[in-house]
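Example (one chain per record):
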Amino acid sequence: MSDEQKSLQQIIDFRIEKLNKLKEDGVNPYPTKYEPTHFSESIKSNYNELEGKTVKVAGRIMAIRKMGKASFAQIMDSEGRIQFFIKRDSVGEAVYSHFKLLDIGDFVGVEGEVFTTKTGEISIRTAALTVLAKSIRPLPIVKEKDGEVFDAFSDKEQRYRNRHLDLILNPEVKETFIKRASIIKTVRNYLDDLGFLEVETPVLQPLYGGANARPFTTHHNTLDQTLYLRIADELYLKRLIIGGIDRVYELSKDFRNEGMDRSHNPEFTMLEFYWAYADYEDCMNLVEELFREAAIKVDALQVDWGGMDIDLSKPFARKPIFELLNEATGQDLSKSSDDEIRSICKEKGVDVSDSANYGQMLDELMSKLVEPKLIQPTFVVDYPKATSPLAKAHRNGDPNLVERFELFIGGAEFANSFSELNDPIDQRERLEAQAVLREKGDDEAQPVDESFIQAMECGMPPTGGVGIGIDRMTMLLTGNRWIKDVILFPALRPEK
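Predicted structure:
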């Protein structure tokens, strides 16, 4: 056992001794219930009304200064922190001795009058103290001086692994997740008000689809069947469009068995909505308004995102993908062969595998040469057919283009949308083409979903569809650059 571990164990043992002393003294250190009447910030903001009046508060002790006959401590509740003053002569010898057994991290209930100390701090003069939970494991406090905690729990990895401690010690983290909840609520309310119906579709699927990605695979014992965690909600939601639910959405977890980085987590939250009789231009307008509404809700119309000043108040730009690619490469890629594009990749220092197909090479060129420059909100529109097997052919008659957009902000993708393909014959051909790519080694190509095609053969109306990554949206609107900072319990590598 290391000295550090030994020291920790000694602290735990000492706290257990205190716990046992409380029990021996007839104190229940883990009571069932406590009913606070007020919270810290509401007391401070309403001090003129509450001065001299009795309140009851409850929270975790975050600072403590024990003295002889009188002591100070600070508790943290859901609103913030407030100090309480406790005096032996006021609460009695027994209660004061119980207070002396308390530590930072313990939960207490405090009843007493609201007053201001000589230093001007709004506090509670304790008349009654109730132990609510004795903490036997210390918070990761590096130093404590004069009852104040500082230099605490700064290691990011440990914060992710111990989110409960992160929330206790870093108030800005809690604020991020409060904003996340507000963003999600705004999204739901916005779509609900437009007449969209929220639904739930299967997480475990006999066949995955709706995106180009590798799935997680599992096995159902009773059915003796291989199942997949969904990579997208698309194909089931389209079945509902076919069934007559004209406006439908799902806000849920999707899963992709891929790498992890600044903006990717294998388990993530996705919004997908489908809108009968609409197209990608309608969806573009809706997405822009939705982002703006969410930004207003959390006061983030102008946000500093990793040193980039993003302005969500102005109209979003709209630019065709080949216009951007041609500008970046100096060549017309829309008319280039596979070999020509491979040569351009080499010339521009963009690494692609020898087996990379046309669509994969275009994606790499976009990723390396174009996307990092798309700082202000920009809809990239009119993608090549080869990269969009579920999108409708472009109405301009170009056989190589489809009606699709992606939204980029700060060099990152935030949304993907199609005028959805509703021709079942065309759909079959495109999925069969995807199957050929799979046979050639593209393990992200989509399989042929015969059940979905049969549903389409019953007739699907013109439809616009959108997918929005909620985690990335939250990253932007809270100013966080890492996806792990907006997911309460992100995926992490095993500790060594």
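Caption: The first strand starts at residue 54 and ends at 65.
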